[in-house]
Every structure is written in C-alpha cells, then in structure tokens.
C-alpha cells in the first residue's frame, strides 16, 4: 500500500514519520516478521520507483511538504496524484495560526478549505480514500446539553473525564475559574453535533470538512484537539520555554478541552491506514483526542510538574489561573470543546489516548535547553 502524506514537515506529519522510523527500528532490533515501512520524500521518487508494485502487506510512505506541493493549487494536486498513484492520502497540511487567521482569512481558506477540496477531487478521480485532520474549533463550546443538566449528570465511562490534577489546582488558582468551568461543563461533542465555529480558523476547517464530505464518499475526517508534541510550535513547548525564565506563569483556566499527543494521533492514523489496507471501509467523521478533560492551566501544570520530575527544570514557576477575559486574543476560543471518542473505538477499535502518560514521553524526548 502506497500512502501519500501531505504536510509532512508539520507537527503531526513529523510525528507520523517518527512513528514509522520507530516501527522500522523495532523490526531491525527484534527481527520482526512484519514488513518494514519505506518512507521517502516525493522529490526523490523517480519513474522506476513509481512503476514498481508494493509487496503484500508492505506500506510505502511518500512525504510531501509545502515546498513539494501546494494543496491550494488544483492542477498541481491532480498532477501529483496522477504521477504518484497512491492508494491512500493522509492530509496533515493545514493553516493552524488561529489568531493570524483573523486577518489572513484568504490564506486560511486556501489551505484548509480549497486545499481539502482539491485533495478530495483528486482522490475521487483516482478512486482512493482520503484521511483528513480537522479540529475541535469547529464547535462553539456550548455543546448539546444545558450546563445545569451536565452538572448533575455523571459522564459515561467511555467519555472524557476531568483530570484529577485539575481539582488539585484550586488552592493555587487566584480565582474560581476552574471550579466554575468544571461545574458548568456541557456534554462532550459527538460527531453528529452541529458545528458553529467562533473564529476564522474554525470556519475554514469546517468548510474543508463540508467540501470533502460532498465530494468524496471514501473519506475519514478525524477531529482532534489541543495537539502537543516535540515538533513545531505548540502549547507544551511554549510553556517549557517560558518556565525556564519566568517565576510566574498565568494560564487560562476557564477553557476546557482534551489534550492530544501527536505521537498517539499518528499511531491512530497509521492503524486506520493498515485496516484500510486489509479491506476495512468505514467512512465518515470521527473524533480522537486525550481521554481526560482539563484546562490550559491544568495542562500547563502537568507539563511543568513532569519536567520537574525528570529534572529538566531547575526551578518550577508558580502557576496562576486566569479567566479568558484576562488574556484577550484576536480569535475567540470555545470555552468547552471536549470530544466524545466512542465512535472511533466502535468503528476502528481505537481508544482515546492517555495524554498524561504521553506527556512523560514528550518531556523525555525534548531537549529543553534548546527551546
């Protein structure tokens, strides 16, 4: 099976590539019986490579970044798919600058909506599936249940719970934002919940979803949230960089969501790709994120605490919980964007990830001195 990965140098794309490298290293060390996954940039692929057929159960990953392919260019996308002849496209290319999108709407639309459409059209012509990554920011944070109902209802076992560490932060928070957020949390968003984005970034991602759904029956849209990893620009790396020099960090405590380690999402995507290779065809939209809800404050605390445990921070800053209104940004964020991940478990056998365990891996892999 030949996979084409777009956005290969982004946070998730690099996580997928490292996941494959780890897979191959494991096989080399343990003399495994599974096939090695061949990974190459499309610029190094020649016509002889393209004419060769994959061995049974073999996976080939062809990677493309922005310099190789502008997905907003319909002709370039169609030509590339025709030339490479992949069996599956994994689209990790996205414009993810949430605040900048407020003043760069066309750029966000070009990548997140038009780019998604172009890939869907090329996939339709080639009769191949597309796995596309979307976001919790397609929702407005109000969910489908009234806060008063949610406060008195226990969440089902398979739905995200609130992190135990979050309650422990009450004593250090300067206000009751975290308590209020927990008490008033609505129910997690299912795949059938109606999107209503609050910002330009969310609108562009929602348009991309709609275009893919309208064009290509063979699609899998995976909505995820609060992505963190060792790669690119993300919340975890920002917190650690600031923690090295700042004695106090103010973190928003009244926005609730589920962090997701990009390495876990990468494994989920490759798991689905392998099942597609075996003939499974369950198309549609699915949610995948961490299994425990928290606030940005709670996530920052977990990151700083683990960095301290691993002796990667000489001093631990004091964390202060603040309200969203105390940290105004150009783009509005949903106050609650917890995703219900039951469908991906039922359809593909994939469990929501334990981000609190994965943070240990993230911190271990990072060289904090160079952040």
What does this structure look like?
The protein is an alpha/beta fold and 371 residues long. 40% of the residues lie in helices and 15% in strands. The chain is built from 13 helices and 14 strands. It has helices at 11-30, 47-51, 74-84, 105-126, 147-151, 164-167, 177-183, 200-215, 235-243, 262-277, 296-309, 342-348, 355-365; strands at residues 2-6, 38-41, 60-64, 88-91, 130-135, 161-162, 219-224, 227-228, 248-252, 256-257, 260-261, 284-287, 292-295, 318-322. The strands form four sheets. A seven-stranded parallel beta sheet has the order 2-3-1-4-5-7-12, sandwiched between helices. α4 (105-126) links the parallel β4 and β5. α3 runs parallel beside α4 (105-126), α4 packs parallel to α8 (200-215) and α11 (296-309) crosses α13. The radius of gyration is 21 Å and the shape is globular. The two termini are 37 Å apart. Mean pLDDT is 85; it is low at 50-56, 144-159 and 164-175.
């Amino acid at each position: 099976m030949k996979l084409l990965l777009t956005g290969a140098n982004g946070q998730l794309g690099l996580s997928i590539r490292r996941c494959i490298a780890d897979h191959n290293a494991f096989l080399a060390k343990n003399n495994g019986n599974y096939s090695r996954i061949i990974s190459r940039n499309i610029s190094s692929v020649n016509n002889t490579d393209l004419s060769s057929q994959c061995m049974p159960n073999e996976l080939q990953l062809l990677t493309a970044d922005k310099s190789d392919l502008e997905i907003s260019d319909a002709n370039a996308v169609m030509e590339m798919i025709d030339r490479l002849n992949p069996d599956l496209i994994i689209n990790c290319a996205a414009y993810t600058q949430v605040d900048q999108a407020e003043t760069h709407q066309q750029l966000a639309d070009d990548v997140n909506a038009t780019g998604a459409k172009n890939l869907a059209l090329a996939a339709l012509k080639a009769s191949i599936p597309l796995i596309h990554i979307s976001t919790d920011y397609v929702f407005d944070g109000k969910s489908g249940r009234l806060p008063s109902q949610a406060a008195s209802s226990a969440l089902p076992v398979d739905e995200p719970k609130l992190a135990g560490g979050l309650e422990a932060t009450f004593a250090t928070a300067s206000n009751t934002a975290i308590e209020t957020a927990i008490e008033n949390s609505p129910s997690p968003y299912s795949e059938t919940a109606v999107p209503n984005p609050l910002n330009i970034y969310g609108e562009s991602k929602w348009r991309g979803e709609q275009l893919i759904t309208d064009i290509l029956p063979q699609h899998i849209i995976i909505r995820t949230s609060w992505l963190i990893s060792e790669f690119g620009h993300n919340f975890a790396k920002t917190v650690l960089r600031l923690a090295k020099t700042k004695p106090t960090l103010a973190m928003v405590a009244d926005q609730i969501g589920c962090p997701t380690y990009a390495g876990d999402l990468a494994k989920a995507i490759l798991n689905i790709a392998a099942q597609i290779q075996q003939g499974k065809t369950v198309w549609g939209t699915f949610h995948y994120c961490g299994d425990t809800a928290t606030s940005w404050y709670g996530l920052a605390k977990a990151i700083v605490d683990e960095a301290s445990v691993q002796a990667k921070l000489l001093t631990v800053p004091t964390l202060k919980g603040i309200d969203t209104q105390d940290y105004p940004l150009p783009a509005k964020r949903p106050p609650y964007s917890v995703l219900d991940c039951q469908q991906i478990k039922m359809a593909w056998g994939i469990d929501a990830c334990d981000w609190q365990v994965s943070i240990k891996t993230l911190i271990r892999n990072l060289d904090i001195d160079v952040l």
